[in-house]
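User: I'll paste a sequence; please echo it back and then give the predicted structure.

Assistant: Echoing your sequence first, then the prediction.
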Amino acid sequence: MRGLICGPKLAACGLVLSMWGVIMLSMLGIFFITHSAVLIEDIPMSDGDIHQDTNPPQRIYELYDKVGYNCIIAAAIYVFFGVFSCCQMKLNQRKDYLVH
């Protein structure tokens, strides 16, 4: 069958992992964009970002936003992999239907 790259179990696993990745990364992106204080340890910040800036909170908020947008982009990539896995599942079902 044309376009069939992976089997039914791998396609199902890819779909489940993609759904989890979209949920987790979307929530992380939202929490970073809303500047959640719990995630302060996860932003790439140095002492210079705090002490040398004239408006320190603004620089930290920019770093929060940057990480948040990266999480949203990664969630979008997971959406594409989920669509790919779903298409592979459909192709596997069609192959089994045509064989039997």
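The chain has three helices and no strands. The mean pLDDT is 88.
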